[in-house]
Amino acid sequence: MAAVRVTLEQAGGVLRRRDLLARGISDWQISVALRAGEIVRARQGWFAVPVLPDTVMRALSVGGFVAGMAALESYGVWIPGGRDHRILMARNASRFSRRARSAGAEIVCGAATHPDPTSRRSSWRAAPLEAFAQVLSTCDRDTAIVLADSMLRAGLVTADALREIFANSHRRTSEWFELVDARADAGGETMARLWLGDACISTVPQFVVPGAGPFDLRVSARGLLEIDGRAHHDSTETYLRDREKDLRAAVWGFDVLRITYAQLERQWPDCLAVIRRWHGEHGPVER
User: What is the rounded distance in angstroms from the CA atom of residue 16 to the CA atom of residue 123?
Assistant: First the structure.
């Protein structure tokens, strides 16, 4: 039943049976939605939409609380490689530990952030800022800024709240907030911006060319960088749209370097060499 799935989606993707009933959904509707594949049973008495990340489903299946990177992913935050698979377990959940470890996760038992299992509040994941603080305590600079950019872009947090988290987390992170930029449209763009900054190359995120729209980064006076994301598919429509966009940029005198996310990760020195050559040919970004 569409109504059941919509109700779950509006609640973040997961609800207990009693919460569904409280929202006017009947047991019959739940059964029909299960048979139709509109929803799945996460564990006894808990239901979820079938498109949640695997880590979230594993945590739910063993009675865990979704934390850190897994929680951020469940909010739609752009996640870099090397995911954090932590599952927080309640103090009385030791009977789940073996099942949880078999799910391929790091288990943190007796975590204070785990909700009271007797509570009627439907809580199964950390709030965005709580999850980010958990990740920030151990992650590197690039991961932190990628996550922060994505959270701001999605409207999950405010800049002031993020500034406070950075300042209070650890001495090593206190200055990282200055690198956050809500204009970033994807994590690959943030990574390229940070790496170019490390090379003392200024950039302009989401630079708009008349008639062509925004490009990920302006990297020199006449150079534009476009990064096709990990989920980018070269359908005919996408291919033609990208070429039209590049042509419009060329009309205005811009060169476009279009790379894949894999090339960004594996061939960054080559990409940087092109951008340095552009700087020698027509100068840095004009601010």
Answer: 10
Please state whether beta strands 46-48 and 86-89 pair in parallel, antiparallel, or not at all (unpaired): unpaired
* Residues pairing with 65 in the sheet: 88
Q: What pLDDT digit, counting tens, does each position of 138-163 carry?
A: 889 999 999 999 999 999 999 999 99
Are 126 and 141 within 8 A, CB to CB?
no
Helix/strand/coil percentages in the chain, nearest 5: 50, 15, 35
Nearest to 75 by CA among 47, 61, 89, 55: 55
Q: Which residues share a beta bridge with 125? A: 66
Nearest Cα neighbor of 283 from 219, 230, 217, 205 is: 219
Query: Is 58 in contact with 66 (CB distance < 8 Å)?
Result: no
User: Considering the chain, what percentage of its residues have pLDDT values greater than 90?
Assistant: 38
**Do residues 193 and 203 make contact, with C-beta atoms less than 8 angstroms apart?**
yes
Sign for the pseudo-dihedral over CA of 134, 185, 8, 50:
negative
pTM for the full predicted model: 0.78
d(CA 70, CA 107): 13
What's the CA gap between 71 and 86, in Å, rounded?
A: 9
Q: For residue 218, what pLDDT is reported? A: 95
Report helix, strand or coil for 207.
strand
